Amino acid sequence: MIETATAALRSRRTLELRYEDYVRVVEVHAVGWTKSGHSVMRVWQVRGGGGRNERPGWKLLKISEANEAVLTNDFADVPRRGYKRSDAALDRIICEL
Question: Which label site among 22, 24, 30, 78 has the fewest CB atoms less than 10 Å from its CB?
Answer without folding.
Answer: 22
